[in-house]
Amino acid sequence: MQKTIRIGTRESQLALWQANQVKDLLTQQGYATELVPIKSDGDIDLVTPLYEIGVQGIFTKSLDIALLAGKIDIAVHSLKDVPTQLPKGIMQAAVLERGPVKDLLVYKNDLSFLDDQEGIAHIATSSIRRKAQWLRRFPNHELHNLRGNVNTRLQKLSAENWNGAIFAAAGLERIGVRPPESVELDWMLPAPAQGAVVVVCRDNDDYCREAITPINHDTTALCTKIERDFLRTLMGGCTTPISAFARIEGDTLWFEGNLCSLDGLVSYTVERTLPVAQTATLGQDAAQEVLQQGGAHIVEQIRNAGAL
Questions:
Q1: C-alpha angle 44/45/48, rounded to 5°?
Q2: What is the pLDDT of residue 236?
Q3: How distant is the alpha carbon of residue 242 from its chain centre?
Q4: pLDDT at 50 over 60
Q5: Which end of the chain is more exposed for a tag (fewer CB within 10 A), N or C?
Q6: Which fold, 4-97+196-216?
């Protein structure tokens, strides 16, 4: 009798979209599947800023617990939400082909506030990385906390007297809710693994591991591993202003990583271009370069501030 693979997912529209991508891929291979929605801690508390919650895996913990308890067989996450150290007993089984990587500014009225270097604009985001990069470029602007799923945040933006809010392009575009009043932030370096979806399973579940392995996208898996190696070496999480992006062109891998102070005033960036075959330690090496440039002082400041 064929086993039905129970796919754990958060309940948001975006999370369900991601889980259904995995469901469809497994169905195409002949596997029986069903979705099991589970509410995460990050979905319950929509008020406290993420950096104040201070919990690694705030969006993945509930699914990890359900997976280890045998209530689900696999879990689907946005890879950027997953701690760099997985819980004991859980393994990364596949990373899907990456979607849009960049951040977007969804704005109200017009974009004239971006050209006014002296004026004060009001921008909303829950991401400490986005806040730091935005303040580095627009130090006069005021940043506001914005929590919730994609649809909730769009509604909040509409209701508040803000000039705009920052979103991941992947989140808006995957569920078809990107407003016309939006612009890609080419200058903003994304979070490590942004735009990528990961599937995890119990490390002793051979059936699920064998089912999931064929849907792994090797290029995305390599690039996101390098980005997350950079993040892990800097001892960062979703509540630290660390950015990284790797891409492959032909046989060459291009990487850029960044660490900002919380206020955006200090920033360290590293860029590397290497043959793909020579990138095994690229993430760690790039992070060490940032630390040696002076980034170690920022990491210590952030740790003392309670963000790590």
A1: 170
A2: 66
A3: 11
A4: no
A5: N
A6: D-Maltodextrin-Binding Protein; domain 2 (3.40.190)
Neighbour-count burial of 110, counting CB atoms closer than 10 A to its CB (0-12 exposed, 13-18 middle, 19+ buried): exposed
What pLDDT does 56 receive? 53
> Helix, strand or coil for residue 231?
helix
Could you tell me the two tokens for 300? 């210590």
Give 106's strand partners.
Answer: 165, 182
Residues labelled as active-site residues: 81
* Residue 57 pLDDT: 66
Q: Determine how many CB atoms are found less than 10 A away from the CB of residue 103.
A: 27
Contact 153, 146 (CB under 8 A): yes
Domain ranges of the chain: 4-97+196-216, 103-184, 231-304
- Crossing angle, helix 218-233 and helix 282-290, to 10 degrees? 30
Strand partners, 255: 246, 272
Region 59-67 average pLDDT: 92
Q: H helices within the chain, ranges in order?
A: 13-28, 41-44, 50-53, 61-68, 128-137, 150-159, 169-174, 206-212, 218-233, 282-290, 296-304
